[in-house]
Amino acid sequence: MTEKVLLGHVTTEIKNGVGLIEFFHPSHNSLPGKLLAELASAIEEAGRNDDIKVVVLKSGGNRTFCAGASFDELISIEDFEQGKRFFMGFANVINAMRKCPKFIIGRVQGKAVGGGVGLASATDYCMATKFAAVKLSELAIGIGPFVVGPAVERKVGTSGMTQLAIDATSWQTAEWAKQKGLYTEVFDSAEALDKGIAELTDKLVSSNPEAMRLLKQTFWTGTENWDHLLELRAEMSGKLVLSDFTKNAIEKFKKK
């Protein structure tokens, strides 16, 4: 097994004006700090690349879109600065998606947990399969969905966010996520999902880039304070992850 497979990867492929950004980690596409930093950089670079007209965010594999934070890295956090730095990884990715001047289309082929729900919520248009159930499990391990919360609430509303955050051990179906506004369409298979994404991106690559840039700005009006807000949220999580309660809860989750 190569080092790349062991550590995961973030790759960008450009096809006919579409920038396909893929992240992968062998542990259910969980995201350690290194991959979060690479993902934020890839999104920022796609925003600057004139060859890319629209971005598709996807993950490798077939079963899980993203399992959220890396439990191995969470359990190894020893002080507040280290904890804040880890959770800033998710904050930086969400802010990179928010600021990217290109539309970001989400491809969610499987389950999304915690930070994975945050990534899906931070896309501009998210399409999924019927297998793409969602769960915010943070409270169950002693923290809370603080960093991803603003992005999730922006898509599913306060009621939906409250439901996900409080009932932290229950899955909500892809159809639930569609009804709440997180997913725009739900497909029966990954093949049908890819066809739907291709049809959409084919239209977008021939659209006016400046019109799309300005339209995206209007979509994200009211989030201009997120650089500061998500940093404060990362500090909340950075403190909570140091507690004995959280460390014990994470260990129990890892043994399941």
Task: Record the SSE blueprint.
Layout: H1 3-7, E1 9-15, E2 18-24, H2 33-48, E3 54-59, E4 64-66, H3 71-75, H4 80-99, E5 104-108, E6 111-113, H5 115-122, E7 125-129, E8 134-135, H6 149-166, H7 174-180, E9 185-187, H8 190-204, H9 209-219, H10 226-240, H11 244-255
Parallel strand pairs: 2-3, 3-5, 4-6, 5-7, 6-8, 7-9
Antiparallel strand pairs: 1-2
Please provide a written account of the structure.
It contains 11 helices and 9 strands. It has 256 residues and is an alpha/beta fold. The chain has one domain: Alpha-Beta Complex (2-enoyl-CoA Hydratase, Chain A, domain 1), CATH 3.90.226. The strands form 2 sheets. It has a 6-stranded mixed beta sheet with strand order 1-2-3-5-7-9, sandwiched between helices. Strands 4-6-8 form a 3-stranded parallel beta sheet. Strand 1 and strand 2 form a beta hairpin. The protein is globular and about 55 Å long. The N terminus is likely disordered.
